[in-house]
């Protein structure tokens, strides 16, 4: 059917045609039909051309945005999502180091140039420096520890979000909020935020999951640039500088998810955590109370497989978007199920990612932490002291837990592993452009308006003394000064991304 415009044009042309005597009407009708046919052919050419272009664009987009980078190396990615890949590789690919292999999953062979990372790792050129979204959580009495942790982790290239649950007094939350708001460096860079409306959180309950998802959603809503989400508590502390951390991660594919996980769950854990049911009062009450255990039990789920592991993770932005936006219904269904599971923060994220066809083969089976346990393990890990120092170093982990507030080992870590970080100062990095002895730039003169009184041990609350801080002058935020910590962390990454270890421990 021709458009109205085509009819008008044809009518206009036919009316202006010259006529002859005799077969005037018949000739006019023939010419009119010829004009209609020409117009139809003209529009048909446009339609065919548009169709060809559309098909070409569709094919191009399918080739470029088709299978994900990890799917390409997994020809057996069908059937059960819990089966690890057991395919073979050529001798050349099997000899690749962990970082080199994982990097080639993302970087195409057309990338020009080469780079040798820490420890002589041959790989693609360094991509844009990654950004970490740190979500730091604490409860009553953790204010000063959270300040110290924030300073030890700070880097202007990252994003930071702090949350103190509602069990802490309002005065403590206000003190931490003021510290974040008026700290000269944080104020200038603008990459540290505090959740003012705190959540009520029950230990081992689903409200811990809700708070973690809350942190993810805030980072996503701010539309800030970040690549990985890391959740830490006030009991955690870094063992390497952020320069070390970012330097090594610059050669790691952004789609990887670092979380300790396993589908092999002991019978007693299945009985206590999967079959039994609890109710978290923090979901519907304004005051904190313990979990309520229900007498009834339920069977093991058969719609998905349960996985468990550490509650401390480094998750990719892509997986965080999957959890929050939920274009697949699994994150929501699993969240509803785990609302009645005890210690659910140690199973929810692991179960979702290992039952997701899109993400299960992006898992790296490590939580990037050094943790000491009793033998046999108890509910809580051991509190770290100086006797664990050598083990922490040998672990090559970038983080450790758990630390008591007054632990002197933290001072040792500051002095020996974090470039001699001074009390109430951030860790000196390549981005610090001030003079070590004179400081300059961001000088806090009204310390009474900046922080609260210092604790006897942490001493991180008083934020007014910046006159000798080289980081008070902010230089290039992507300038790095990696050191020995980068070499240690690189060894860990090499080990966990080694092909046999990497694939053999994914969701099994």
UniProtKB/TrEMBL annotation:
Glycosyltransferase is among the record's keywords: yes
Keywords annotated in UniProt: Glycoprotein, Glycosyltransferase, Membrane, Transferase, Transmembrane, Transmembrane helix
Main location: membrane
Recorded topology in the membrane: Single-pass type II membrane protein
Superkingdom, taxonomy of origin: Eukaryota
Location relative to the cell: Membrane
InterPro entries: GLCAT14A/B/C, Glyco_trans_14
Transmembrane segments: 43-66
GO-annotated cellular components: membrane
Keyword NADP: no
Name listed for the protein in its UniProt record: GT14-family glycosyltransferase
Protein's organism: Chara braunii (Braun's stonewort)
